[in-house]
Write the structure tokens for this entry.
Amino acid sequence: MKLIIEGTLPSLNEMINASKSNKYKYVQMKDRAIRMVAWSAVKQLGKIKIAKADYTITWYCPNKRRDKDNVIAGQKFIFDGLQEAGIISNDGWSQIGKITHDFGVDKDNPRIEVLIA
């Protein structure tokens, strides 16, 4: 099954900068990202429950300005959002198998595609 998250998630640099400037700003950023993922998951996947799965995450960025290692930090919000949506019970070793990342550029439609297998 596939989950598509429209837009982008905060990068590692954005998370670090927000946490240094104001803890509340980081909490807002995190909560907003998790809610966006959870909303997308419920809308697209419904009320399915996944015990354990492998994940292939394809990051379609609007450009190549962000380093790939900064981009993939957003996976934290993906798994927390799936947990908030009730699709996974936890995001630990028992629920998350392999995680694979791929990258592309789509300036007109930045998004994150999560293939769950």
Observations:
- Residues 23-45 form the longest helix (23 residues).
- The two ends are 7 Å apart (CA to CA).
- The longest strand covers residues 96-105.
- Helices lie at 12-21, 23-45, 68-71, 75-84.
